[in-house]
Specification:
Shape: globular
CATH class of the largest domain: Mainly Alpha
CATH architecture of the largest domain: Up-down Bundle
Strand content: under 5%
Structural class: mainly alpha
Largest sheet: none
Number of helices: 20
CATH topology of the largest domain: Growth Hormone, Chain: A
Distance between the termini: 50 Å
Order of helices and strands: HHHHHHHHHHHHHHHHHHHH
Number of strands: 0
Helix content: over 70%
Length: 420
């Protein structure tokens, strides 16, 4: 088996979907100018992306081995390439909704298949962990690259221009290359292929039963609120840069890349720190630091000396400082996911992963819609100040999550020692 071809294809799959998934902030900014859409209306794009991820992930979890990982990835790549090719000629707010629904659907197939395929193309746990880290790092590279790719197609001073839609021809091209590369490669799925799967209702009942456990309930609340915070900032940062900091459109999009970069650095650093310091202490310090940064950065956005901003060199300090919040919020999501999965028995990892995807998607949608409405009614500064509220709630949730998780671990240890 040509593993290098599969691996390159997996990188390309994640790369193109990273760009599409995280372009929602850029597109929210553009549809307001192109189609006269309000902030609250534009915020619905997050729902088309996230809810399709949640629904499709849940539906395909049991059946994807029957379809095949390679076939699932080919379907996703072919589907998204077709939609991207249609986007420039059918450009409208309705078509934009279709695009993000297609992106969410495709990513659900890609994510499940990629994660499963890694187990097939790697030899041992060390190689698996290494390749998984490379894949996730490449996802962040895709996000970073996406800001600059989109900004290259946006025309400053021409808000009604639809030239930016031509970026989808490029994204379709990348998808087609990934499709052909995967199509030309053999992937031996005999070790995981099955013609049987549990009935849909059984899967649903298992997930509901798991979700009602106190530990999982508090985790779900924590994950939901975290993604609400992250997506409300990530999706609205380009609009904040443009409408509050008065940056040119291309620069507004480019400088949003600082958030993706700081998030990548935050997760890498946390991976080292969490080996030595308990996760709860690290996350509480991170949330406190994020809150302080909001209080420091937003006032900087209100300071304007009337200068015409032309590029990175004379951009206001607030444009650099606020996106650094990624350094502090980045470790939270991977850490709590790791804690919940390592606490539960392996047989519950499948349904737990489904719950993580579903409630993360719901949190992202909720965050974007709330922020969009506050942005429209009270302005960008108030919208980003609002992030302090879910941060405070998340600290409370993490306190209970840590407390219940310790009790669960104690029970497991007691049972393992033969206690009654």
């Amino acid at each position: 088996m040509s593993n290098w071809k599969i691996k390159v294809s997996l990188f390309l799959n994640y790369f193109v979907f990273a760009i599409l998934l995280n372009s929602v902030g850029t597109v929210i900014l553009q549809v307001q100018a192109n189609y006269g859409v309000s902030e609250s209306s534009a915020s619905i794009l997050e729902a088309f992306k996230d809810l399709s991820i949640a629904v499709v992930s849940f539906l395909v979890a049991s059946y994807i081995t029957r379809i095949g990982y390679k076939n699932s990835m080919l379907i996703a790549l072919g589907f998204i390439a077709s939609v991207c090719l249609l986007m420039p000629s059918l450009g409208s707010f309705a078509m934009t909704k279709v695009l993000f629904a297609a992106t969410g659907t495709g990513f659900a197939l890609i994510k499940v298949s990629v994660y499963a395929t890694i187990g097939i193309v790697t030899k041992d746990k060390k190689e698996h962990a290494s390749f998984m880290n490379f894949i996730e790092s490449f996802f962040m590279i895709g996000i970073l690259t996406g800001y600059f790719i989109f900004s290259a197609f946006v025309q400053d001073g021409q808000p009604q221009s639809t030239e930016w839609l031509k970026v989808y021809y490029l994204l379709a091209g990348i998808s087609i290359v990934a499709f052909l590369l995967l199509l030309s490669t053999t992937l031996d799925e005999s070790s995981v292929r099955t013609t049987e799967s549990k009935p849909f209702l059984e899967d649903f009942k298992e997930m509901v039963k798991l979700a009602l456990a106190p530990l999982v309930l508090v985790f779900i609340a924590s994950a939901f609120i975290y993604v609400l915070i992250e997506q409300s900032i990530m999706s609205w940062l380009p609009t904040f840069n443009s409408k509050v900091l008065n940056l040119p459109t291309t620069l507004s999009i480019q400088m949003a890349s600082i958030l993706a970069a700081s998030t990548a650095v935050g997760r890498f650093t946390a991976g080292i720190v969490l080996r030595k310091i308990h996760w709860f202490l690290v996350l509480i310090i991170c949330l406190a630091a994020a809150g302080v940064l909001v209080l420091v950065a937003i006032p900087l956005a209100q300071v304007s000396d009337g200068r015409v901003i032309t590029g990175w060199g004379n951009a206001p300090l607030g444009a650099f400082v606020f996106p650094l919040i990624g350094l502090f919020i980045a470790p939270i999501y991977p850490a709590i996911n790791s804690v919940i999965l390592s606490t539960l028995p392996p047989r519950q990892h499948g349904p737990m992963s489904g719950l993580i995807v579903i409630f993360s998607a719901l949190g992202g949608t909720t965050g974007s819609i709330i922020t969009g409405n506050i942005f429209e009614s009270y302005g960008g500064e108030t919208a980003f100040y609002f992030s302090l509220v879910p941060m405070g709630i998340l600290i409370i949730c993490l306190f209970f999550f840590n407390r219940i998780q310790k009790k669960s671990e104690a029970k497991i240890e007691f049972s393992a020692k033969g206690g009654h």
